[in-house]
C-alpha cells in the first residue's frame, strides 16, 4: 500500500527471511537472559516471552545502528498481559499517553513507522491543533499545556522540557515553581495534582512526560528515562503512564531551543529520526496491558511553520473512526487541552474547572490518513498565501481611492469607477464562497475566488436593479450577509481555511463567527437593512433594522456564532442606526450605554452557556468560568496585546487610513474629493447615511474589543465605503440621464 492511503488492518508479517528472524530472536533471548543475570530483575519471567516479542522487533525499520539497538530493546519487553483482556469502561481502565513532538500525518508510513502505523490502524484518528500562546508550539509548551489543561507557555526561549532530577523512584522538575510564581502559569501541575488527589499512581517516561505528570510542586511519582526501564510491577500498580518520544524533535533543537526556521532536516534525516521514534514507541506499546486506552499525540511543532499534528485514540470500537472534540465542534480536530480532559475522564478522575479541554470523541467511520494529510495540506496552502492576499487587498484599496479621487470629476468615467467600486466590495465574500468548490492548490484556490468574484460583480451590475442607485449595494451587501448567516447555520465550513476566516493550525478559532467575518457580517446586515428602510421608510424600515439586526446579533453571539466582542460592537451599531433613522440625536452617553448593553447581552449568552455541561460549553461559557476562578485578566491582557499589535499591521492600517481619510474629505470638501458623490448618496438615501454611521460605530467598537483590532475596522470599511461611492455615482448618473440636453432645452424655450 502507498504511504498515506487508507489504513490497513494491523499486519505483523514483514517478509523477512527466516534466517534473519531466527538470528534476531536468538540475540533477543540472550540479551534478556544476560540482563536478568546482571540486574537480578527483568520485565520477563523467561526467554519464551522474549521470543514471543521478537516479531514486534522485526517491525522496526532497519538501517542505523541506533535503530537496531532500539529494536532489540523493544523486543525484550513483554506482551504477556495482552492475552484475553478486554477494554475496561471509563474510570476503571488504564491510559497511556504517547507524545511524539513534531509528528504529523505525512510522517506515518508502514515502512518507516510500523509500530505507529499499526497503532493508528486500530484507532480513531484526527488532527491535533497544538497552538498554545505563540504562533508555533515547542515541546516545552506542548507538555506544559497537557499539565495545565489550558493553553500555556514557558515565556522565554522555548524548546525542550527541562531534564528531571531523580529522587528515589520518582523525580522533580528543576525550578518548577518559577512556572507558577513568575511565569504566570498558575494552572501548571493540574493533571498531576488531580491524579495525586484521586490516589492514582502515574509513571512518566522522558522529560516531557515528567513535566506533564508533575504535581503543583514539580514532583513526579515514578520516573524512567527510557521505556526499557519500566517493570511489569510498575504497569500493574499504576493506571496512568505517559511517555515523551523526543527522538523526532531532538535533531531540530539547537541548545535545547527550537529555532524559528521552517525545516532543518532533509527528508532522509527526518525518516531516520522517525525510525528511532517509532522503535521507542513500540517498546512501550509491546508491554501495555490490553485494557489500556492509548493516546498518541504530536504534541508540538518542529519549526517556524505551524501544522496540524497526529491525534489517535485506541480503544474498542474506535478503529476507523474520526477523532474530534466538542472544544472545536469538528469531528476530526481536537486541541492539546483535550488530552488532559480525556486522560482524567478515562481514569475516572474529576476534571478540574480550570481545564478548558473536553474528552475526545470517536465520530463517524471512514477515517483515513489521506483525508488528514489533505486537511493539513489545505491549511498550508491557505497559510502560505494569506500574507500576499491581504497585501494585494490593501494595494487594491489604496489604488482604488487614488484613482477615484482623480476620475470622479470626469463624468464619462463614472460608470467605470462604479463598476470598480462594486467589484472591490465583492472581493471579501469570495474568500468564503470558494470553499463551496473543491480546491487544494493555489491555482484552484485563486481560480475559484476569481470565478465567484466575476459572478457576484456581474450579478450586481447586470441585473435590472443596476439602474437603481442602491442596486449594486443591495446585491453585494446582501450576498455577504446571507453567505455568513448560512455558514453559521450549517456549521461554519466556509470560514474554516479561508483568508477572511480562520484555520485550525493557527488555532485562534475553530467554529462560530470570526472577528473579520463579524465585521463583514455586521456591515452587510446593516447596509442591507438600510436598503429595506429606504424602500419602506418609517416604522416598517425602522422595524426591519431593529429586527434583522437583532436576529443577526443573536446568530453571532449565541452558541452558533460564539462571538464575544461582536455582540458588544453590534448592539451600538444597530442602536445608532435606528436612532438616526427615527430622527433622534446620538450622544456620547447614549453610545456608552449601548456598549454597556452589548456587554450585558453577551454576558447573558455566556452565562447561559456556562450553565451547560463542561463538555458542551463554548469559549463564552469557559470565559465565565475563568472570571470566577480569577484567570480572566490574563485572557483579556493577551487579547489587548494582540489588538494593539494590529495597529501597526502594514496590510490592515493602510485600508483604514485611506478609507477614513477619503470619507472625511468627501464629506468636508465634497466637490474637491468626490465631485459630490458622497453627499449625493446621503441626499438620495438618508437611511444609507444612518447605516454607514452605524457601521462605523460597530467597526470602531469592534476594533477596540476584539483581539483582531484593526482588521475589524478595515474590513468594515473595505465593504462599506466602495458601496457608498457606487451608490453616489448611481445617483449622479441617474440625474444626468433624467436632465434634458441642450437641444431639448432650446426646443422648450422656442415653444
UniProtKB/TrEMBL annotation:
<feature type="transmembrane region" description="Helical">
    <location>
        <begin position="510"/>
        <end position="533"/>
    </location>
</feature>
<feature type="transmembrane region" description="Helical">
    <location>
        <begin position="445"/>
        <end position="463"/>
    </location>
</feature>
<feature type="transmembrane region" description="Helical">
    <location>
        <begin position="470"/>
        <end position="490"/>
    </location>
</feature>
<feature type="transmembrane region" description="Helical">
    <location>
        <begin position="711"/>
        <end position="732"/>
    </location>
</feature>
<protein>
    <submittedName>
        <fullName>Uncharacterized protein</fullName>
    </submittedName>
</protein>
<feature type="transmembrane region" description="Helical">
    <location>
        <begin position="652"/>
        <end position="668"/>
    </location>
</feature>
<feature type="transmembrane region" description="Helical">
    <location>
        <begin position="564"/>
        <end position="581"/>
    </location>
</feature>
<dbReference type="InterPro" id="IPR017850">
    <property type="entry name" value="Alkaline_phosphatase_core_sf"/>
</dbReference>
<feature type="transmembrane region" description="Helical">
    <location>
        <begin position="420"/>
        <end position="439"/>
    </location>
</feature>
<feature type="transmembrane region" description="Helical">
    <location>
        <begin position="588"/>
        <end position="608"/>
    </location>
</feature>
<keyword id="KW-0812">Transmembrane</keyword>
<feature type="transmembrane region" description="Helical">
    <location>
        <begin position="540"/>
        <end position="558"/>
    </location>
</feature>
<keyword id="KW-1133">Transmembrane helix</keyword>
<feature type="transmembrane region" description="Helical">
    <location>
        <begin position="389"/>
        <end position="408"/>
    </location>
</feature>
<feature type="transmembrane region" description="Helical">
    <location>
        <begin position="688"/>
        <end position="705"/>
    </location>
</feature>
<keyword id="KW-0472">Membrane</keyword>
